[in-house]
Amino acid sequence: MNADALIERAIERAVAASEGPDAPPKLAAAIRHAVFPGGARVRPQLCLAVAQACAIDGDLQVAAGAGAAIELLHCASLVHDDLPCFDAAEIRRGKASVHVAYGEPLAVLAGDALIVMAFETLVRECVRSPERMRKLLTVTTKAVGARDGIVAGQAWESEAEINLSAYHQFKTGALFVAAATAGAISVGEDGAIWRPLGERLGEAYQIADDIRDFAMDESALGKPAGQDAIHARPNAVDSLGLDGALEQLNALVSDAADSVPDCTGAEALRALVYAQAKRLTPKNLANAAV
Predict the structure, then answer these.
(1) CATH number listed for the domain at residues 3-288
(2) For residue 267, how many other CB atoms are within 10 A of its CB?
(3) What is the pTM of this model?
């Protein structure tokens, strides 16, 4: 089974486990709306890619579970980001955002449920590997925390002065770091040496997202465009100019590829890093990017 299928199967198991005849049907529908159809599933793909690079013939069930948990946390963050108290975004992934489709109360609850579901997924998928489960729970919990996780990243938007490095590192980079390190841990390898890959990819993804927010329209993005300018948030294009942002993106992608540790699948993973960077760059700017 390929990586995409492994990820989707693990996510489907997670969502299905929260459903049943006694569960509130509108909440169940709101959760499914938030998760399916998915976006690019970049974070779980990174998790599985690292696991495969470390152990090409290894069992990927734990990696798929870890990747699914990280994706559910990402989906939760999108549901909450779109709420009227934050971005007030009406579309996400080309369809109505959860609060528009199901109302604000159910959107809050769906986001909360997805956070809980992520940790339930880790426990269920890793039950046969308790030591790996403990390490994965530590990594994943840190990635969503109030000190240096995505909660902290979102909270920086409420400060009078934004620590730009911390804002980008936590809001976007934290889940990339979790995905890279979790991929290694899931197959019994040292996760710490994979942290630089996650850090660089997270920063590259944030800059690519800033470029897309600046250069693409709503129909192409599948979500509202120009949100950084509307909400007066830091944006790499605003700080560096378009050419400067593209140059920084190229440098980060190159650094990310170079940071891949020596392992059996290193070359394939480096190729994947470059392919993902190209996919994230608007087509009309692709010639300026890697």
Answers:
(1) 1.10.600.10
(2) 12
(3) 0.93
